[in-house]
Sequence to fold (1131 residues):
Amino acid sequence: MPRFLLCDQLEPRRRAGCRYNGRRVTESILSTNSTYSLAEIAQRFDLTCHGDPTIRLDGVGTLAGAGPSQLSFLSNSKYSAQLAATHAGVVVLREEDVANCPVAALVTRDPYVAYAKIAALFERLPAALAGIHPSAVVAAGAQVSSSASIGPCCVIADGAVIADGAVLGPHCIVGEDCTVGAQSRLVARVTLVTRVTLGKRVLVHPGAVIGSDGFGLAFDHSASDHGSWIKLPQLGGVRIGDDCEIGANTTIDRGALDDTVLEQDVRLDNQIQIAHNVHVGAHTAMAGCAAVAGSAKIGRYCMIGGNAGVLGHLELADRVTITAKSLVTHSIREPGEYSSGVPLQENRLWRKSAARFKHLDEYARRLSALEKDRNNE
Amino acid sequence: MPRFLLCDQLEPRRRAGCRYNGRRVTESILSTNSTYSLAEIAQRFDLTCHGDPTIRLDGVGTLAGAGPSQLSFLSNSKYSAQLAATHAGVVVLREEDVANCPVAALVTRDPYVAYAKIAALFERLPAALAGIHPSAVVAAGAQVSSSASIGPCCVIADGAVIADGAVLGPHCIVGEDCTVGAQSRLVARVTLVTRVTLGKRVLVHPGAVIGSDGFGLAFDHSASDHGSWIKLPQLGGVRIGDDCEIGANTTIDRGALDDTVLEQDVRLDNQIQIAHNVHVGAHTAMAGCAAVAGSAKIGRYCMIGGNAGVLGHLELADRVTITAKSLVTHSIREPGEYSSGVPLQENRLWRKSAARFKHLDEYARRLSALEKDRNNE
Amino acid sequence: MPRFLLCDQLEPRRRAGCRYNGRRVTESILSTNSTYSLAEIAQRFDLTCHGDPTIRLDGVGTLAGAGPSQLSFLSNSKYSAQLAATHAGVVVLREEDVANCPVAALVTRDPYVAYAKIAALFERLPAALAGIHPSAVVAAGAQVSSSASIGPCCVIADGAVIADGAVLGPHCIVGEDCTVGAQSRLVARVTLVTRVTLGKRVLVHPGAVIGSDGFGLAFDHSASDHGSWIKLPQLGGVRIGDDCEIGANTTIDRGALDDTVLEQDVRLDNQIQIAHNVHVGAHTAMAGCAAVAGSAKIGRYCMIGGNAGVLGHLELADRVTITAKSLVTHSIREPGEYSSGVPLQENRLWRKSAARFKHLDEYARRLSALEKDRNNE
Fold:
């Protein structure tokens, strides 16, 4: 018995003919009672099956926590000991681990990827009904596909386009000249400010703000007092490619003249800040609280660690990894892993190291002087 | 004369019988005219009173700013000089400071704690009426206590439970299978995404997002192009204990398989990021912009400084303090204070230190070589 | 043909006489067809004009991207090569660059400032109609100017004041005793919690939370278990001066007893955290993700870099610049530029430097010992 996020029995309001029409938008929704046989899963994902193919599975779990009707996985050999003791119904693993598996197994070269695909079968997304919730405010000049779902209290401006099968959860705002691509999902409370284009299957989490003003200021020395700031109008937009994911409370500013761009399959965690005119290459992922300053250009397949930063106007090559909390202060031309920062110490010891840091230049000079003396002897 | 946040004269809408029913939810609300005698306060909080017990107090203030009808406190001896000059009506202080107090005094061993308790008497929270505002959208399958207050534009999904005396300010979203415990307060614009359970007396500030998808990705090398990301469904939830406080725009992701957990009395400041499957022990406090990566386990009574970070899967013992902006890169087994980072310098000098940092390994080797030479002489 | 953000044809609801009244609030709105002659612009901004004064301009662009009906600028000599090749209709530049300009020119001492002012002519803000959208919830005790615009789903509490010409986009919340000054613009989804006063022409971006509780806690050792936290009521407010700008998802807490203060023309980027009782001097700008801890006092004309931090209770003089990601750990009395942090290296090399950092104190001692030996020879 499916449950719906929104009361479809609410009386229609505002736009006749636009209420929820009772058709479900998302095809992937499963009732909580869905089960699959091991054989079905093996066939669907093209995996080799060991054990009773009629076992029925109704969910997933960790090696330690899964029960006989659940599927688990072994991807990291660190957890091999847990395999021997697992009570899972079936485990996804590599060929070399089959011998140690006390229960049924599905064999693949990449168990983590296979598990990710299988687990999606058991995800129950909030159901979404096609149509517009009566409490939503949709401008006359907005185009909303009849197969899209517009949740309670959404506000959609003139010039906005909501494509087929897109789902806007409660409280989303889609400003002027913004487009939400087909099958995209704004979970709830997402703000697209202006001139934002989302591709297909983009997923945006609550509190994200996309298309707000870039931080562009000119200091006017001639102004009264000793000068003051003048704001530069931010006339560009934001373009987000297919299959991107944008985390909760992440902010992406629109460009000053040209656009801010995320290519396809870019994955941003929560509370990330992308400044105006940044360009992020396809398949790049950034962990929580990373920040990229204006006009920086990040390559493809990069990994930016949590709370790492990239200064403005820099360029990062493809396949660059920046470790957590590092600050990128110069462009990086070669793929590889880069870091800054100093290691954690007990505060008592750290204070000594930190105090010495301020005198490093002096120490280096004194060291050279000693060496020179030594060589002159 | 109490004032109400919400117009209770608005006509009912949507759900007959569910409008504000005129009963106030929060008992602690005081009119601005509330006053207390010194004797009343001394008795209520079990403090020793010096001076005229009939003095009436109508508020609190700093030693420097408080007037004769206000109460102040001296907790830090740094401010002793201000005590002598205070115009406050009464000062909360330690026994040893009574002699230097020119006005009435309340004596206690911990003036700051006593002050906190007394000051709460003078806080005027926005009044909240039991019932559901007519602009709120409440699903038929939600359970809302008749003593709870649901503010304007709130959206409450099927399977949600709002317990007795809970107050949801305007624009809160409570998703499927979320529970708001008794006497909890969501100030405004709070989002509980899915499978979130808040305990009793939990306070959540605006913009907080709890229960959003954890950032779980598997890289599928076999995908077209040179591979792409696959999302791992986030099937766990979030459990938040009694008496926790969650700051503005803070994000707490739900777990991948198990839950993300905050034990009781955890206090999070603004813009904190808690990743999926993190476990935070009771009474731990984190300052603004701290971030904890996935599956980290923080002990009880820890203090995490502003913008500090903890890498994934690490464990911190009880009573660990991390100073501001430090990055925890290994598990910590012993209580104590830990730090990373280098001290602030004038940029001109810092550049020299920073340049030398890159050669530290070389310097250490050269130093050893000199020592060896020395010893061989 | 102007387009409106909000459907003014919606039927009135809730408060008769308060619907949008059809008068536009913002005078600066231009239709997309607005054009200006070179002569008009030169006269309006008092610039010297070279070239055909009848050229008509309909927008702005980069030197590389602008076409014949667009205006560009040359502010940084780094882009001089682009000047020679530009197809812009006119370029704003300095006297010394006129000779190299292949098209019409406007001459000024500060091309970036002049460009900022001119570009504002071509910005098309979402139109705003005076009046209150029927879906907004406005308390009976709120004062809303008849020339203000209150967007969809806004919630305005008792005691709130919305001054002349103020524009509140969709989903703004204005809490008790908050004031929005004349001509201020809350773009969308802004939360003013309580006791917040915005001056004139203040611009606040989506997701910003102003006036939330400061993070004030006292640890009560006498509580059950091994002690627990007690919250200090936050009884102050927030005062924001004229012409300030507050970025998306930025948080500014209200004071514990006194107010948190931003003087005029303070410019805050996205995701900045300003704790309770902070005081920021006029004309100071902070880049994204900066954070200032409680009671810190920042001077005038300061520049705080991205993700930089300032510890609590510190004071920064006027005209102090803090570079990105630096942590200010002591008060700064002299203007100038200050930094902390270490440079980015390849991870393999950085590991060596970082490992040595922990032994800096030992190295310094060994260096001194060698020098002493040397001197004793």
About this structure: Chain B has five helices and 39 strands. The longest helix of chain B spans residues 360-376. Confidence is low (pLDDT under 50) at residues 1-18, 26-32 of chain B.
